[in-house]
Amino acid sequence: MSFKIKDPNRDIAAEVPQFMTRMERLWFFAETHRRAVIVGLLLLCLLPLAIGIIVWLEQEKEEMALELHAQAVQLYRDRPFDDPEKANDNLKRAISIYREILEEFPRTSSAELALYFIGNALVDQKNYTGAIETYQNYVDRFGHNGILLGLVYQRLGSTHLLNGDHENAVKAFSQVLATPDALNKDQVLFELAKLEEEESQPEKALAYYQELFELHPTSPFANEASIRVKAFEQLEKGDQGGADAGGEAKLGQERQEGEEATEEKEP
After folding, report:
1. Dihedral Cα 100, 101, 104, 107, nearest 10 deg
2. Cα(224)–Cα(179) distance, rounded to whole angstroms?
3. Can you give the pTM of this predicted structure?
4. Do the Cβ atoms of 90 and 74 come closer than 8 Å?
5. How far is 237 from 94, CA to CA, in rounded Å?
6. Which of 44, 78, 171, 187 is deepest in the core (most CB within 10 A)?
7. pLDDT tens digit string along 33-82?
8. Which run of H or of E encompasses 67?
9. How far apart are alpha carbons 180 and 130 in whole angstroms?
């Protein structure tokens, strides 16, 4: 009697008949690798579920952050002039909630607004150094949003002025003009022109006013810019006698009227 010796290294796949159909080969592969196939199918079924859970959790975070943001905005606005103590307390509470949003929900859309409003609130507290740092932090973290970035740079420039730093104020305002999506370039041009007037630089001021009037003719600041340009042109002509003094007086009067007319339009 003859016996066959079992070879443990024998390749089972090599014994599969070459005439098997593609479907039969696929079924044979599944049977041979049953465990791996089952695990793969389970993962394939669980993947959409995992994605759905992640999306749901992110949506929950967005809603929670929005609720906190609404509370902070309410406190920020509710600052009665006849009750300074309550106004100051509400401002502190608003800042605290905005910081909570940044810490607990840093990747939500509310976090971006929270950082901006923290800077504004610090300005209201006259903490100009803290506000400048906050605005700069916004630029570093959320510089992709051109529309809000323009407002941040404008606020940054105004805060530098309050802090007595004219040079950095001009740099911040100039960044607004370099931001493609900024919607407040007309107001910033007006601010830059006023700064140059205060620094006794009429030529630079005139250039800003002309740029404002030419690039933003429908702006609420364009009318004032046009008046200022005409006033500068009249000064340049220099009538005899007291024309220069009269022109300066008229320029000062027109500037005061223009600033009063546009004061309510500034953010």
Report:
1. -150
2. 24
3. 0.70
4. no
5. 54
6. 187
7. 667 767 676 767 766 766 766 665 677 888 999 999 999 999 999 988 88
8. helix 34-77
9. 27
Please provide the average confidence, as pLDDT, over all residues in the chain. 81
User: Residue ranges per domain, the chain?
Assistant: 130-183, 188-267
CA distance 213 to 139: 29
The span from the CA of 97 to the CA of 103, in Å, is 10
Amino acid at 111: A
Q: What is the mean pLDDT of residues 247-254?
A: 55
Q: Which residues of 208-241 are buried (b: 16+ CB within 10 A; e: fewer)?
A: bbbbbbeebeebebbebbebbbebbeebeeeeee
Q: What is the pLDDT of residues 133-171, one digit of tens each?
A: 999 999 999 988 888 999 999 999 999 999 999 999 999
What token pair was written down for 82? 């006849």
Terminal C-alpha separation, the chain: 104
The Cα 68–Cα 76 span in angstroms is 12
> What is the identity of the amino acid at 102?
L
The two structure tokens encoding residue 114: 């929270």
